[in-house]
Structures are given as C-alpha cells and as structure tokens.
Specification:
- By secondary structure, the chain is an alpha/beta fold.
- Helices cover 45% and strands 24% of the residues.
- The protein contains ten helices and eleven strands.
- Strands 3, 4, 5, 6, 9, 10 and 11 form a seven-stranded mixed sheet that branches. A two-stranded antiparallel ribbon has the order 1-2.
- The chain is globular.
- One of its GO terms (molecular function) is transcription cis-regulatory region binding.
- Residues 1-58 form the HTH lysR-type domain.
- InterPro entries: LysR_HTH_N, LysR_subst-bd, WH-like_DNA-bd_sf, WH_DNA-bd_sf.
C-alpha cells in the first residue's frame, strides 16, 4: 500500500507514467500496475487517460494527493520511532536545501544546531529550490532552505538572510547556468531579459560547484554568489537589484511544533 502511494505521488506531480518510472527507477508497466492496484483498493479511478502521453488527475486523486504525503510521513515516523526504542530521546528532523545554501550557509547552520540543540538528529538532502519545495509539500522533509522566491499554499516562508549575486568570469559570449527550477537559473534568466543578452553558447549544469570550477577555468561567465567566487576571475557588480533572500520554508500545519520552532529560532538568530 505504501509503495503504491509513493508511486502515486510521483505520477501526480509529473502527470506522466513514463517520467514517474524514470524518477523511481522502475519500468513503466510497473508504475501502471501499481496505480491500477491502488485504484482497485480505493474502488475509484485516479487518472483519466486522455492519450498515451496525457493523463489528468480525477477529483479523487486531488483529494488523495493532499493526504498521501502525510500518511507516508506518519508511517516513516512510526518506523523511525520503533527503530530508536531504547535509545536516547532524540528528535529527528529532515532538511532539504538548495545547492547554493549547501555551499555557503548550511555548514554554519549545522554547527550552531549541534551546539544549541544536543537532542536533535538531522538528515540533509540537496536539490534545487523547486525540488526542495516539492519535497516539503510531499512530506519528504520537514524544513526547506532555498534562495528562489517561491510561494505556495500551506507553506510558510521566512527570510533568514541576504545574498548578493555578481557576474563572474571572462566575457567570451559563453554563459553557464543551472537547470530550470534552480535559484541561479531563475536569476540568470531574469538578467538575460533585463540586459537583453543572447548568449553565443548557453551551458546548463546541475551542480553549482561545477559552475564555479568552469568559471575558474575560463569556460565562460555565470551569475554567482559573491560569497562563492573563484579566485582571480573578472567580477562585475550587479547592484542591489540582484540581492536575493535566503528563505526558510515549513508547512503551516507544523507552525506549533516545539522542536521546529526551536530550530527556526536558532537559524533566524544566526543569520539576522
């Protein structure tokens, strides 16, 4: 049942059996079969098959999606609590963070959390900003830390610090940027529009550290945080217009959770 729900969540988000199969590393017939089994258990259709490539969630699917993430989270919590029986009474929190935050901010946050909250255990996964938001919405993480200004229903957003973007690298017509869904990708597209730039070559890279190394090697130019610049490369200031916030995201339903509030307060005090 829980495996079927996990598959359902991915199909719902991607609106595609084939994309869901790719993300789950299983075959498309397996995805179709698991959704069919779930529909049989619920005695209802979850997706209307408009064509081989187009599926549309039913009203039942919309309802299930709102609840399924919480069901999976509760089941995971029970498993972890059983595993920890007899151990110290530590609480575990799962962070999802963007790549930029992983490079320039999270180590400082982790150090403060370890010192301030000794009964806290935490796991960390790194993604792009939209990936972090998706993980939070589907109950795979408890706290998100991103730099892209995303807003969505049922998620609270708190600014926890500032970051200044600059243009770095040699001006040879080549640009290096992150994939769609990332903060750097978002701001790079904004810069292209405002400066009316048409790159000779645009290279997409899904790793901020690699972008930094490519800029250092003279491959091209990129927007980077002024806190994460390679030494010796040309740098151009973009001004306050490209100053961005770092955001902490939590589900609104967890707003009264004592441990999460302690974590939020610790992070907020560290960076403000």
């Amino acid at each position: 049942m829980f495996k079927f729900l996990e598959t359902f969540m991915v199909v719902y988000k991607t609106r595609s059996f084939s994309l869901a199969a790719q993300q789950l590393f299983i075959t498309q017939p397996t995805v179709s079969n698991q959704i069919k089994q779930l529909e049989l258990q619920l005695h209802t259709e979850l997706f209307e098959r408009k064509s081989r490539r187009e599926i549309v969630p039913t009203e039942a699917a919309n309802l299930l999606y709102k609840r399924a993430g919480k069901i999976l989270k509760n089941w995971q919590d029970v498993n972890e609590q059983i595993t920890r029986l007899g151990d110290e009474d530590n609480e575990k929190v799962k962070f999802g963070i963007s790549q930029t935050i992983s490079r320039i901010l999270f180590a400082k946050i982790a150090n403060k959390l370890v010192a301030s909250l000794p009964n806290l255990d935490f796991d960390v996964t790194v993604s792009n900003s939209e990936g972090v938001l998706s993980q939070l919405e589907t109950y795979k993480i408890d706290i998100g830390l991103i730099e892209k200004p995303l807003v969505t229903e049922s998620i609270s957003r708190l600014s926890i610090g500032k970051d200044q973007l600059v243009k770095a690298g040699i001006d040879n017509g080549n640009w290096i940027t992150r994939e769609p869904g990332s903060g750097i990708g978002y701001y790079t597209e904004q810069y292209f529009r405002e400066a009316d730039i048409q790159p000779d070559k645009l290279i997409h890279v899904n790793n901020s550290g690699l972008i930094r190394r490519m800029v250092a090697q003279g491959v091209g130019q990129a927007l980077l945080s002024d806190k994460d610049l390679p030494a010796g490369v040309p740098v151009k200031s973009l001004g306050e217009h490209f100053s961005r916030d770092f955001y902490l995201l939590v589900r609104e339903e967890n707003s009264k959770d004592e441990m999460l509030n302690q974590i939020i307060q610790t992070i907020n005090n560290l960076n403000n």
